[in-house]
C-alpha cells in the first residue's frame, strides 16, 4: 500500500507540468497536444480516485452509493485515458497521412473529440454503475463491492466487452495508425529540405507516442489477463491473491510514467520542463525564435522564421494556407524590403 503514495505524487506532479507546458507553448496548442493534455487530466483523476478503492481494502464500509461512486469514478478516468491514447494515434494518422485540415478546423474537431472520449468512457462503464452493490461478504478478495447480474454469463460477456473496448481495440487502432504513419514517413524521401526537416520533427513526435503506447500495453497486460481469468474461474484464489494487487500497482504506475516518456522523446517537453522548474518566462524558447513586431530584421532572418513556422505546422500535422502552400515562395513584406532592410544596410555602410 505505501507504494501508492510516491506514485500518486509523481503522477500529479508530472501531469500538472505537462498541462502547464502545453498551455504555455503556442506551438503546442494543437489538437494532438490538447488530447495529450486530456490524457494528463485523466491520469491525474485516476491517481486521485485510487484512494477510494484503498478505503475498501481497509475494510471501510462505503455503502451502496459509495461503492457505485468509487468504482465508476476510477473506471471512467481509466477509460478516458485509454481512449485519449487511441484518439492521439487517429489524430496523427489523419494529420500526417492526409494533412487536409487547417489548425482552426482541427481545434473545433479536437473539442468534439475530447467530449466524445469522456462520453465513450461513461457509456462503457455505465452497466457496472447500475449493477454494482455493496458486497454482503466483507472478506471478498478485491474489495467490499460486487455486482449483481441476472446470470453469471452476463457478467462474463460484459467483462470481455470491457477488455475489448479498453485494451484490445485501442491497441489494434494504435498499431494500425502508427504503422501507416511510419510507412508514410519512410516513403517521403524526395522532399524539399524544409519538408525533410519537418519530417524529422514528426518522427520524433511519433516515437514519443509509440513509446507511450508500448508502455500502456505492458503496464496493463497482466491486469487484463487476470481480470478475464478471474471471470472465467480459470485461476486459483491463491495465485490471484498474489498477483492481483501487483497488477493494479503496475497499471497505476503507467499514469506516472507518461510525463517521463514525453520528456525523453520530445525536445519541446524537455525545454518546457526546464522553463517551468526554473521559473523562466512564458515560452522563452519560442520567444527567442520569433522577432518582435517593429524590430529591424533582415530578409534572411524573416524567411528563416517563416520556414520554421511552416515546419512547425508539418510537425503538428496541420495544413496552413499561409505557411505550407509553398515554402520556397515566401513573400517578404514591402516594409522589410524598403524600410527596415534599408536601415540595416545604411548602418552597415556606416
UniProtKB/TrEMBL annotation:
SUPFAM superfamilies: Family A G protein-coupled receptor-like. It is found in: Membrane. One of its GO terms (molecular function) is G protein-coupled receptor activity. The keyword Transmembrane applies. Keywords: G-protein coupled receptor, Membrane, Neuropeptide, Receptor, Transducer, Transmembrane, Transmembrane helix. The chain crosses the membrane at residues 6-23, 35-57, 69-88, 109-130, 156-183, 204-223, 243-265. Gene3D superfamilies: Rhodopsin 7-helix transmembrane proteins. One of its GO terms (biological process) is neuropeptide signaling pathway. Residues 305-326 have a biased composition (Polar residues). It is a multi-pass membrane protein. Belongs to the G-protein coupled receptor 1 family. Residues 14-262 form the G-protein coupled receptors family 1 profile domain. PANTHER family: LEUCOKININ RECEPTOR, LEUCOKININ RECEPTOR-RELATED. It comes from the Eukaryota. The lineage of its organism: Eukaryota, Metazoa, Cnidaria, Cubozoa, Carybdeida. Residues 290-326 are annotated as: Disordered. Pfam families: 7tm_1. One of its GO terms (cellular component) is plasma membrane. This is Neuropeptide-like GPCR.
Amino acid at each position: 500500500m505505501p507504494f501508492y503514495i510516491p506514485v500518486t505524487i509523481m503522477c500529479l506532479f508530472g501531469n500538472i507540468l505537462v498541462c502547464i507546458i502545453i498551455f504555455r507553448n503556442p506551438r503546442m496548442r494543437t489538437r494532438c497536444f490538447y488530447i495529450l493534455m486530456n490524457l494528463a487530466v485523466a491520469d491525474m483523476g485516476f491517481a486521485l480516485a485510487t484512494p477510494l478503492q484503498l478505503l475498501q481494502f481497509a475494510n471501510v464500509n462505503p455503502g451502496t452509493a459509495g461503492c457505485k461512486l468509487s468504482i465508476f469514478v476510477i473506471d471512467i478516468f481509466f477509460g478516458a485515458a485509454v481512449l485519449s491514447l487511441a484518439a492521439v494515434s487517429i489524430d496523427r494518422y489523419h494529420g500526417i497521412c492526409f494533412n487536409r485540415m487547417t489548425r482552426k478546423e482541427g481545434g473545433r474537431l479536437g473539442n468534439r473529440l475530447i467530449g466524445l472520449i469522456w462520453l465513450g468512457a461513461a457509456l462503457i462503464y455505465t452497466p457496472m454503475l447500475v449493477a454494482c452493490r455493496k458486497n454482503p461478504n466483507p472478506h471478498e478478495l478485491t474489495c467490499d463491492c460486487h455486482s449483481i447480474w441476472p446470470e453469471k454469463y452476463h457478467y462474463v460477456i460484459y467483462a470481455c466487452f470491457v477488455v475489448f473496448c479498453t485494451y484490445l481495440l485501442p491497441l489494434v487502432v494504435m498499431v494500425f495508425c502508427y504503422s501507416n504513419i511510419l510507412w508514410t514517413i519512410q516513403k517521403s524521401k524526395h522532399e524539399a529540405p524544409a519538408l525533410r526537416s519537418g519530417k524529422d520533427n514528426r518522427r520524433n513526435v511519433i516515437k514519443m507516442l509509440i513509446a507511450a503506447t508500448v508502455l500502456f500495453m505492458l503496464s496493463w497486460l497482466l491486469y487484463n489477463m487476470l481480470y478475464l481469468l478471474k471471470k472465467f474461474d480459470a485461476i486459483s484464489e491463491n495465485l490471484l491473491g498474489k498477483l492481483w494487487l501487483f497488477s493494479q500497482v503496475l497499471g497505476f504506475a503507467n499514469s506516472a510514467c507518461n510525463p517521463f516518456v514525453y520528456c525523453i522523446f520530445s525536445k519541446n517537453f524537455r525545454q518546457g520542463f526546464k522553463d517551468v522548474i526554473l521559473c523562466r518566462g512564458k515560452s522563452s524558447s519560442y520567444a527567442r525564435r520569433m522577432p518582435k513586431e517593429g524590430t529591424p530584421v533582415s530578409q534572411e532572418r524573416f524567411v528563416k522564421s517563416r520556414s520554421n513556422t511552416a515546419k512547425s505546422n508539418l510537425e503538428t500535422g496541420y495544413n496552413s494556407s499561409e505557411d505550407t502552400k509553398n515554402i520556397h515562395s515566401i513573400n517578404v513584406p514591402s516594409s522589410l524590403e524598403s524600410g527596415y532592410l534599408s536601415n540595416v544596410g545604411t548602418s552597415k555602410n556606416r
